[in-house]
Amino acid sequence: MTDATLAAPAPEPVDTQAPRPRPARAAALPLKWLGVAPFMLFALLFLILPTIHIVLGAFQTPEGEFTLRNLQGLAVPQVVRPFMLSIKISVLTAGLGCLFGLILAAAVTKGGLPGWIRDAMLTFSGVASNFAGVPLAFAFIATLGRLGLVTVILKEVFGINLAATGFNLISFLGLTLTYLYFQIPLMILIITPALDGLKREWREAAEILGASGSQYWRMVALPVLWPSLLGTFALLFANSFGAVATAMALTGSSLSIVPIILFAQIRGDVLQDPHLGYAIAFGMIVITGIANLVYIVLRTRAEKWIK
Amino acid sequence: MMGSPRFWSWAALVAGLLYFFLPLIGMFEFSLRARRGEYSFQAYANVLADPQFRETFLYSVAVALFTIVLGVLIVAPTAFWVRLKLPKLRPVIEFITLLPLVIPPIVIVFGYIRLYNTSSWLPLTGTAMGTNILLVFGYSVLALPYMYRAVDTGLRTIDVATLTEAAQSMGASWFTIITRLILPNILSAILSGAFLTFAIVIGEYVFAALLNRPGFGPYMVWMGGNKAYEPAALAVIAFGITWACMGVIQLATRLSKHNRVQR
Amino acid sequence: MKSTVKASGAIALAALLASTAMVSAQSLAELEAAAKAEGMLTTIALPHDWCGYGAVIEGFKTKYPEITVNELNPDAGSADELEAVRANKDNTGPQAPDVLDVGLAFGPQAQAEGLLMPYKVSTWDEIPESVKDPEGHWYGDYYGVMAFGVNTDLIDTVPTKWEDLLNSEYAASFALTGDPRASNQAILGVMSAGMSRGGEPGEESGKLGLELMAEMNAAGNFVPVAGKTGTIAQGQTPIVAAWDYNLLAWRDSLAGNPPMEIVIPEGPSLAGVYVQAISAYAPHPNAAKLWMEYLYSDEGQLGWLAGYCHPARFVAMTEAGKIPQEMLDALPPAEGYARAVFPTVEQQEANKKVVSEQWDAVVGANVQ
What we know:
Number of helices of chain B: 12
Shape of chain B: globular
Low-confidence stretches of chain A: 1-18
Distance between the termini of chain B: 30 Å
Helix content of chain B: over 70%
Radius of gyration of chain B: 23 Å
Largest sheet of chain B: none
Distance between the termini of chain A: 33 Å
Structural class of chain B: mainly alpha
Order of helices and strands of chain B: HHHHHHHHHHHH
Mean pLDDT of chain A: 81
Number of strands of chain B: 0
Low-confidence stretches of chain B: none
Structural class of chain A: mainly alpha
Number of helices of chain A: 13
Largest sheet of chain A: none
Oligomer: heterotrimer
Shape of chain A: globular
Mean pLDDT of chain B: 86
Order of helices and strands of chain A: HHHHHHHHHHHHH
C-alpha cells in the first residue's frame, strides 16, 4: 500500500480552545516535554535516524570519510536512465491524473448532475485511491492482458486485435494506464473542495457580463484553481515517483524505474557498488521532497480562495 | 442552467465509469475462469484452501492489529498532550507526521536494514521476532500521517482543555483522563485511523519483502508469478477488504457527524 | 525458546564438531544431534515446483521435526543467492542462507570468493567427477535440458527451433525465466540459442546467443519479463525457455487450463547442471550438512526424480535398481537427452561472462 497519500485536507475550523492565562510553573517545564517523549523517541528511531543514515551514507565512503563520489556514481546510464524513465512516467501520470481528475470532479460538482453522484464518486475515490499495488496490477492484467476481458471483447465483438496494434500492458504506456487508476481518484479527492470554493456568484456574474462557459473557465475558474492544480500535480508526481509495488507486480523487476533498481540494489548489489544504493535513495528523497514542498507551498496559497 | 454542459458532464461521467469499472469487472471475470470452459469459483476455493494464504493473511492481520494498537498508543496521548500543553510544538509534530509521505517507504526500510542489522547497537534484524517488531514499528510510521490526522481532527471537536480541567478538579489522574475521558470521545476518529491502517498494512509489499517476512503482500506477488487465475481471485478479495475498511470508516464518520460541532 | 543451558551445551557440541576436519562426513547420529540443537535451516531460491523441492522439503521436515526450515526468496536467481551470502556475512539472523543451489558456473565463482564451506556427503563417490569440486566446496545435484514451454491457447504454431522465434507471428510472445545478468536459467537459455546457431559452448555460444536475442528483441518478439507459470497462463509470456523439468511441473500445475506443450528445440540440446553448496557463513552449519546428507540419500534423490529432474546419482542408482519404473516412464523422453551436450564448468563460466556483461549493450531489452 505504498501508493496511498492523504485525502483532501479538511479546512481549519475555528479553534474551540480560547487561550487561557496559565500560572507560571517553572518546575513543570521538563515534565511537559516528557509527554511527547514517547512520540519523539518513536519518530527518531524509526523515521528520522534511518533517513539521516541513508542521507549521510550517500556522502560517505566505505571507510566513513566524506565524499561526493557516490553522487558522481549516479551519472552512469544504468542509473540515469531509470531516473529519466521515472520522471517521465511520474510527469505523465500526474499530468493526465490532474486533467482527467479535474474533468471528472468538475462534471460531478459543477456539471449539473444529480447530487447523489457526487457523494458516490467521492466514496469510490476514497477506495480507489487506496486500491494500488499488487491487486491493481492483477486487475489490469485480467482486463488488458493477452487474455484480458477487454482484449477478448475487442477481438470477438469488434474484431480489433489489441496485440497486433502493438499495445502491450507491460510497457510505459501500460504502467501509466495502471497508475492513473489511483492518481485520478486522488486528484478528485483533493480538487473537489477547491472546486466547491468556486463560488456560484462568480459564475453568475460572469454570465451577466456576457461570458460563455469556456471563457468563464479560462478567465475566472482556472486562474483561481491554478495553485491547487499545480500543487496537486506535484503531489501526484511524488506519489507516482515512489510507487514500487504496482510496477513490480506488473512487470517483475524488468521495468527500470528508480524504486525498482533501488529494490534490486537493496536485495542484491546488482550495480556492484554498495554505496550507490545510498546515493539513489538520496536522489529519491530530494525529488519527492521538492515535489512535496511545492505542493505545500501552493496549497497554502490556494487555501486563501477557499475561505 | 445550459443543457450542453450537462451533456459533457454525463459523457465525462460515463467515460470515468468505464475506466474505473472495467478493470474491476475484468478482474472478477478472470477469477472465474479457473475451470476450463465454464465459470466457477474454483480459483477462490483454491486460494482459501491454500495453507500459505491462511498463514500470510493471518500474519498480516496480526501485524496490522499490533500496528493499530501501537499507533493509537503513541499518537492519541501525544496529540492530546500537544493540544493541551505544548500548542507551539504542534507545527513541529505535524511536520514529523507528514514526513512518511515525503520519504518513499523503500528508503525508510533501506534505512532499517542498514541501521538495525546484527552488527548495530540495536540488532533487530537478527531474529525473526526482532524483525517482526521492526515491521510493526515500520508500519506504524507509514500509518502515522493518517492516524495523527484522524485523531487530531477528532480532538478538534471536543473541548480538550475544559474537559481536562473539570476532570482534574475532580481528582482524576492523567491516565484516567486519557483512557476514560478523551479516548471514548474520539473513538470514531480512532476507528477511521485504525481501518485506514489496516488497509495499508494488509496489502503492503515493500517492507515485508525486503525484511523477508511472510506477509500477505509478498504472497500475492508470488501467486501472480506462479498461478494463472488465483491472483485475480486474490485481487478481488483484497479489493473487497479495502472496500469493507473504507465502508466502516464512512459509517464511523457518519455516526459521529451528529456529535461534531457545527461550523 | 530453548533454555540457555541447553543452548550453551549445544553450542559447545557444535563448536567441537566445527573444529574437526570439515571434509569427511561425520557419523550421521552426531550430525543429527548437532543439527537438532541448532534447530533451524535457512534455504534460499527453492521454488516448491522446481524439481519437486516442495515434497523434498516436506520430507526433510517430517524426518526431522525439530528443525524449522526457513525458506527465503524462492524466486531468487543464482547471482541473488551469492549476494545474499555476501550481504549477510556478519548476520547470524534468519536472513542469512545456510545452503545454496546455484548454476554450475556459479560454484567456482563462489568458491573463489571464499563464500563456501567444503563438505563431502556420505554418498560422495556416486556423484560424477565432472560435476563436483574435488575438495568438496560444490557438488552437482541434478540436471535437465533446455526446452520451450508454449501456451497453446494463445499460440497456434508451436515453434520447434530457436530460429522460429524470430517469426512475426510470435510478436511479444517469448521470454526467458529471469534476468540474464543474474539467473542461471536465463543465461543458459541464451547459451542454448547460441548453440543452435552453431556456436561452441562457451564464449562463442554466448556471443551468438546474444545476437539472436538482439534480433528477437528488434523484431518485437521478446518480452523482458521473467516467465513463469502465471505469466504463461495469463498471457504475458506465452512462450518461455526453461529447463524441461520446470516446464513439466508448470504444465502439471496448470492441469490443462490453459494447455501447455513442451518442445526440446532442434539442434544440440543443452543440459544444465546445478550444484549444492554450504555457505561459509552459515548460521547453522550442522543443519546444513544434515540437509546435504538428506538430499544425497536415496530418499532425496528420488524426490528430485519425482520432480522430473535427473539427480546426480542417477546412473549409480539405476544400476543398483533403486528407481521405480513408473518414475523412469514419467521422465521426459530419452532422445532429447541422447543429443544432450553437457558444457563444462569452464565453458559455462565463459558463456556467463559474455552474457551477463554484454546483455545490456547488445540486446538492450528494457520495458519501453
